[in-house]
Specification:
Layout lengths: L2 H8 L13 E5 L4 H12 L3 E6 L3 H13 L3 E6 L5 H15 L4 E4 L14 H23 L7 E5 L13 H21 L5 E7 L12 H7 L10 H12 L10 E4 L6
Parallel strand pairs: 1-2, 1-4, 2-3, 4-5, 5-6, 6-7
């Protein structure tokens, strides 16, 4: 996570008067990167956040303490994206603990890049399991607990629209699948007043895609704004979709990519 992200989080005061006061959010894949930035931002806006993690228990607990130190409310919950039963139990447990669930952010994701003749079925299956299947599982579990005004927000990718380098076909496919899933789920859940949307980032400075590599420099040449985004910038879009001003936005795939797909 960038220094700018951490500094911004620490200098912002959380409280019960934010636009998300009284709301409960589950951040699936919330211990690092965009998920962690989203947890900080939703907590800053007043939500109680449950940070779902698979293996990064230390990072998740550290984030909980950071949010609490800033005046927010947070817990860490183990939730393996590859284990549908465990993920469902984790979401059910958060809803039971707090008596409600208002916001789901699906931020868990993996990236495997390799030439077609070297791409293994194990990597293919893992990509689909984490990037697509777990989103469906988490959404199915969370929707049971949501009332009118519920929000489901997926972290997609600009690569659903543009894949300009070799080896990324399976990742692009997995993020393209979320576009269709969101459009269908928006129809399923719209009558209940629940919105479903994708946030589709371009290159963002995280441990999965750091900004200071030769590969990153090549990406900048493809963009209208030649830089990596910051996780806080993506979290701001997540916060918008989670808030009351986005009540009429659903079924959307919203690019925040510095013009990568322009």
């Amino acid at each position: 996570m960038s220094t700018t992200t951490n500094t911004a989080a620490k200098t912002t005061t959380n409280g019960t008067n934010g636009v998300l006061a009284g709301k409960v959010a589950f951040i699936h894949g919330g211990s690092r990167g965009i998920g962690a930035a989203s947890a900080r931002r939703l907590a800053r806006d007043g939500a109680t956040v449950a940070i779902g993690y698979a293996a990064s228990a230390i990072a998740a607990e550290a984030l909980v303490e950071e949010i609490k130190a800033s005046g927010g409310q947070a817990i860490a919950v183990k939730a393996d994206a590859n284990d549908a039963a465990a993920l469902t139990r984790a979401i059910d447990g958060v809803a039971d603990r707090f008596g409600r669930l208002d916001i789901l952010v699906n931020s868990a994701g993996v990236l495997a890049v390799a030439p077609l003749d070297q791409f293994t079925l194990e990597d293919f299956d893992r990509t689909v399991s984490v990037n697509v299947r777990s989103v469906f599982v988490a959404t199915q579990a969370a929707a049971k607990h949501m009332r009118e005004g519920g929000r489901i927000i997926n972290i997609g990718s600009t690569n659903a629209q543009r894949m300009p380098f070799a080896g990324g076909a399976v990742y692009a496919m997995s993020k393209s699948a979320l576009v269709g899933l969101v459009k269908g789920l928006a129809r399923d859940l719209g009558p209940r007043g629940i919105t479903v949307n994708n946030v589709a980032p371009g290159p963002v400075d995280t441990d999965m895609n750091p900004a200071d590599t030769e590969f990153a420099a090549g990406l900048h040449g493809l963009m209208a704004l030649p830089r990596h985004g910051k996780a806080d910038e993506i979290a701001a879009m997540v916060a918008y979709l989670a808030g009351p001003e986005a009540a009429f936005v659903t079924g959307a795939d919203l690019l925040i990519d510095g013009g990568f797909a322009a």
